[in-house]
Write a structure and sequence with these properties.
Blueprint: E1 6-9, E2 19-21, H1 24-38, E3 40-45, E4 51-56, H2 59-64
Antiparallel strand pairs: 1-2, 1-3, 3-4
């Protein structure tokens, strides 16, 4: 099984699920698209667990709705 360095998580994308990549620039571009389409998206480093990139402005609404 291949381990990927980054995961893009988009809480409001109930169909697509998480996307994985080893290339930060590629996954950041994908995150931008998902953030625009679904309101909020993040890129997480799978080694450290830290969020390394995020896009969108609906985080507080997602928390209120219990999505994240």
């Amino acid at each position: 099984m291949t381990q990927f360095l980054y995961t893009c998580e988009t809480p409001n994308d109930f169909v697509g699920g998480d996307v994985h990549s080893n290339d930060l620039e590629t996954i950041e571009n994908y995150c931008l698209d998902m953030g625009e389409e679904h309101g909020y998206s993040i890129v997480r480093n799978n080694v450290t667990g830290e969020i390394v990139f995020e896009h969108g402005d609906e985080l507080m609404q997602l928390i209120e709705d219990g999505v994240v």
